[in-house]
Amino acid sequence: MPDSLVDLEARRNAVQSQISQLGDMRSGSITGTGGRCGNPNCHCHRAGDTGHGPYYRLTRKVNGKTVTETFSSAASLTKAQREVAECQRFRELGDQLLDVNEQICELRPVEEISPTAQEKKRPKRSKRKSRAK
Ligand SMILES: [Zn+2]
User: Fold this and answer.
1) What distance in angstroms lies between residue 43's CA and the mean position of ligand 1's atoms?
2) Are the CB atoms for 89 and 83 separated by under 8 Å?
3) pTM to 2 decimals?
4) Which residues surround ligand 1, an ion (CB under 5 A)?
5) Closest among 114, 115, 110 to 129, alpha carbons compared
6) Which of 1, 47, 76, 113 is most buried, judging by how many CB atoms fall within 10 Å of its CB?
7) How far is the CA of 34 from the centre of ligand 1 (A)?
8) DSSP-based three-state secondary structure for 60
9) Where are the beta strands (DSSP E) in 63-122?
10) 31: CA distance to ligand 1 center in Å?
């Protein structure tokens, strides 16, 4: 049994209210790097050493170019992780919102489109229609 328009609109409202409650968000992804460095005398090359890091950095695309950001403190990393997670949540909710809207569009009867709204797209039309003759 497919959902009714009323159900779908309720679901859309629920998704929209979740989106409105999102906090600070930023795009990008945070990855950790670490391991062995280039200095063979460094402790990281000793057996059993866990190596350096991990060092975290955020990468994101700006105008098609990858921009990398590093973090000066654990607190700034934690803050960025939270912001990136929020953006991920926003994308998920955005997908849900589009999905439910597409179902609504499919069910929405054509008649519900207001004729006056269509009229506004054609400003060249004369004010009184032929009906008034
Ligand atoms: Zn090293």
Assistant:
1) 6
2) no
3) 0.67
4) 37, 42, 44
5) 115
6) 76
7) 9
8) strand
9) 65-70
10) 19
CA of 70 to the centre of ligand 1 (A): 19
- For ligand 1, the distance from its centroid to the CA atom of residue 35, given in whole angstroms, is 8
pLDDT of residue 11 exceeding 70, the answer is yes
* pLDDT value, residue 83: 97
Q: How much distance in Å is there from the Cα of 37 to the middle of ligand 1?
A: 4
Q: Given the structure tokens 């945070």, which residue do they identify?
A: 30
Cis peptide before 123 (omega within 30 of 0): no
Cα distance between residue 92 and residue 90, in whole Å = 5
> 49 C-alpha to center of ligand 1: Å?
10
Q: Check if the beta carbon of residue 58 is closer than 8 Å to that of residue 68.
A: yes
Confidence band (pLDDT; 50, 70, 90) for 3? confident
Q: Could you tell me which residues are beta bridge partners of residue 29?
A: 59
- The answer to whether 97 touches 19, Cβ cutoff 8 Å, is yes
